[in-house]
Specification:
Blueprint lengths: L5 E6 L2 H10 L3 E4 L12 H10 L3 E5 L11 H16 L4 E4 L10 H11 L3 E4 L9 H11 L3 E4 L10 H11 L4 E5 L7 H8 L3 E4 L2 E4 L23 E4 L1 H14 L3
Parallel strand pairs: 1-2, 1-8, 2-3, 3-4, 4-5, 5-6, 6-7, 7-8
Antiparallel strand pairs: 9-10
Helix pairs in contact: 1-2, 1-8, 3-4, 5-6, 7-8
Length: 253
């Protein structure tokens, strides 16, 4: 904890776990497929990330990209992934799911939470597409969730900071509201002050120089976006430090 604040880094690699520790973060959220907002990482990634750093390790439990309305088989996969994440050394899991009407699927989330204990539980950004965020966070309190990650239903947490403040007020200290999405050196301090949060979630990534030449036009490509085949991003410890410094120094202004 830095000045009463906590910082969680969204990572998708072992190098990211190491960078988060070097940058001064307290916790990581380990994911795969960040291009779709994150999915559940592999067993090996969890194990090696656990071995690589001594930070709090929270694992995203999400079977696919897209919406957060899951079918029965997907909920079953998530239940197993929650249990296995604990066996592989996770300190917490990041879960969530909705009904078709945009409300939290409290019954199925309760089953995930039951399987997660004694790990801590964060509800992910499914909250940002809920029909009623301020009432939804009260459902999370009733479920016993420790934390919710949110952008305040906006494209960035800074843009949604006023709804984030209302979510903080609605939970009256019974739920940690962690702000995430687009957090950077320029907006971290204002987000903390206006949003009333004490935890920030960000990725602090930098683009790496390509090590292979781009595929010629009309050549083979691995996905729908050929340019992505040579693009890699990685967690930057210097950016983590810069965002933490900006948040802590600017907080009292």
């Amino acid at each position: 904890m830095v000045g009463g604040l906590r910082f969680e880094i969204c990572i998708d690699s072992i190098a990211g776990a190491i960078a988060a520790r070097q940058g001064g973060a307290q916790r990581v959220e380990l994911c795969s497929a960040l291009s779709v907002g994150g999915t559940t990482p592999s067993a090996a990634m969890i194990r090696h990330s656990r071995a690589a750093c001594d930070l709090g390790l929270h694992v995203l439990i999400r079977p696919r990209g897209g919406d957060f309305v899951f079918d029965t088989l997907e909920w079953q996969v998530m239940e197993t992934d929650v249990e296995l994440a604990g066996e592989w050394g996770a300190d917490g899991v990041v879960i969530g799911g909705l009904r078709a009407d945009g409300s939290i699927d409290t019954d199925r989330c309760a089953r995930l939470i039951e399987r997660a204990r004694p790990m801590t539980v964060t509800f992910h950004r499914a909250i940002d597409v809920c029909a009623e965020a301020e009432s939804a966070v009260k459902d999370l309190v009733d479920l016993g969730v420790e934390r919710v990650l949110t952008s305040g239903q906006a494209s960035t947490a800074h843009a949604g900071r006023h709804l984030i403040r209302r979510m903080v007020d609605a939970t009256d200290g019974r739920l940690i509201v962690m702000a995430g999405a687009g957090v950077d050196e320029q907006n971290a301090a204002e987000l903390i002050r206006d949003g009333g949060v004490h935890e920030l979630h960000f990725s602090a990534r930098r683009r790496l120089a390509p090590v292979v030449s781009p595929t010629p036009a009309g050549g083979a490509q691995m996905g729908s976006d050929a340019s992505a085949d040579t693009v890699r991003e990685e967690t930057d410890p210097d950016r983590i430090r810069a965002i933490i410094d900006a948040a802590t120094v600017g907080r009292g202004r």
